[in-house]
Fold each of these.
Amino acid sequence: MNKQGTIVRWDDERGFGFVRAAGANADVFFHIRDFRGGSTGPSEGLAVRYEEIHVGGKGPRAMAVAPLDYVDPRRPLPAELPRRRDGSKRAPPPPHVLAEMRAMGLLVPAYIVLLVWAAWTQRLLVPVVLSVPLLSVLAFYLYWRDKFAAQRGARRTPEAVLHVASLIGGWPGAWLARRLLRHKSAKEEFRTIYWATVALHWALLALWLYSTPAR
């Protein structure tokens, strides 16, 4: 039976979650192997369509779970799937996502200005400043590799490695990966540690710039 609903719980580490149909009280289990989303991964609050099946003695299970606007290249979208009443296909971003977007809108430009100033006053060597974008590329790659491994049940990248990548300067790329890949975006504990690494990076950078005289 084809249904539409919202992902209400998602465990990124264990690779499973629960989806709830509109107007229903029961949550339906699904595994990462049954999710179809291309570069979009499962996250809490994501509106999806799915096929509900019933396995004897184990309750309902959601198969072929996919975002409402995902076009499966292997088969056309069922014509009978209706749009939402407001005409949209995707649920609005959760409040924490909006807050993070606003924070990044301030932090990233300020970070660029600070690095340019540090290079201009020679508080940081120009090669060091020029290498900073590479740290974001590295962080993005690590997140992508971890998501790829999670979808295939392969060996995962430890969360500590992801956090170190943010701490040493790759935090913009890490945030972009979490946003675009929808990876590590729903786990509150991970988000908290991520923002702690961002704050610590800024604090260490400020301490270095303060203690290093201009040349």
Amino acid sequence: MLEILLIFILGLTPPLLSLWSRRLAEARATSRLRAAREAAAARGLRSLALSPDTRPPERVGQFLGDPSCRFNAKSAYIRCAVNPIGPCQDCPQYQPREDINFGL
């Protein structure tokens, strides 16, 4: 009977230790996340300045880049397929669009 109890206790020890260490790690992560949020709130948020070639399209939202360019991605994240980080002024790959409404 004692051997069965010993085997049972030894069998339950690893999962219990694992559960305990996981809860300890989660508590540490939660406290670090809370401290990071408090530090970010104390510093305040910096506002991101929009680039001068950001124009509101006729649709919802804003996009970057020159709407008259053929390679314009019509995205708020990248300017175009050829030169994603810009700038659009004096871009050597500029090609005017053929459609009249600039693809909007």
Amino acid sequence: MNGDRTESDWQGLVSEYLVCKRKLESKKEALLILSKELDTCQQERDQYKLMANQLRERHQSLKKKYRELIDGDPSLPPEKRKQANLAQLLRDSQDRNKHLGEEIKELQQRLGEVQGDNKLLRMTIAKQRLGDEEIGVRHFAAHEREDLVQQLERAKEQIESLEHDLQASVDELQDVKEERSSYQDKVERLNQELNHILSGHENRIIDVDALCMENRYLQERLKQLHEEVNLLKSNVAKYKNALERRKNSKGQGKSSSSALTGVLSAKQVQDLLSEDHGCSLPATPQSISDLKSLATALLETIHEKNMVIQHQRQTNKILGNRVAELEKKLRTLEVSGLWSLPGLSYNVSVGFGRGKDTILFGDPTLPTTQRSRSPLLKFVEQPTENKASPKDDVVLNREEFEDQRDAVESSAVNLIRNEKQKSKKAPSPDVTVAHEYKAEQVDKA
């Protein structure tokens, strides 16, 4: 066993020796080849150095001769001097080109290095992002590129749609401008025709805006009155039903047991909810039904009060809009100089739209016939007999207008208070809620 083993080891060592010997021979041959190439390179280097020295010496000699030729002979014509200057510029440009070429080569080399670094950095980022060490040439994932392309397409479509919308908006704006101009012309024609139909003065046009404002106010008041009438009708129907139920209950002999109905007074509610009565109230079906009817009556009363409050708020809103419109109209009249201008006549309503209390601005040139107009704005014609006495016409300034307005408001307050006193005698308090609220608002004003 040991002999076989030593023999195998010996054969392995011999084979390794032969391999090393062959490698040594190959290294020797390679070294000889490299030495030969080194000798040839050295020879070529010497030759190139010699050629470079020769060219440098030749260049220096030519340059020296040329300078001696130009500088040493001042009698040369200017054309040759120009040629010499051009030659100098040519040499300078050639030197500059060589220098720039070297810089370009250096920059290209740097660019290649930077591109390699950039590529390596992108590959590293992609590897870190995707966790793939063998990413290869692809820097980013394909789905990311697809997403970017889709986003770009959507952005282009959105830009196109916005451009179309802009063009459509411009066209629509042009149409609206044309329509506005046509409506303005139409309003002017209608105003003139309306003035002609109403046989008004040529220098005084009917105020259509004031008529429209009065019409809107009257429509809102009419709508509110319809709602109040419907509410009052529902209350009357409820009271009728309650009275019928009470009559029926009295007819059946249950007036003492079932005294609760849909309509309760404040005293009845206080008696039912008192502590003594509540503690002594037995837990019977009749008492439970009475409590249910009490709760139903209270809910109905709350609903009615809410409806009344809603109507009061709507009334306040309408009156506020009315006051704002009147203030705007009066401000317009003040700015236009109609407070002290005797050439115009207006009949301005300052009350609650009843058309009774008005302020007159006299105009002696109006015809004798008097026509019915809106309470907000009327034209008052004076008789022809007063033409000779213009002192009778009243031209109001601001103080007189405010005095008359205060007088009208005081008369309206007195009227509402009288209605309130009359309504206190009646048994239905819901009817006078609106009048009370109006009186309170007027008192506050």
